[in-house]
Amino acid sequence: MASRTQIDRARVFGPQIKDIQFRFFPQGTSTTAFTVANGNLVSDGGVASVQRTSNAGEFTVTLEDSYRIPLSIQAQVQHTTAVDLKAQIGNISNVASATPITFIVRLLAVATGTDMTANANSSVFVQCRFKDSDA
Question: How far apart (Å, rounded) are the C-alpha atoms in residues 122 and 105?
Answer without folding.
Answer: 15
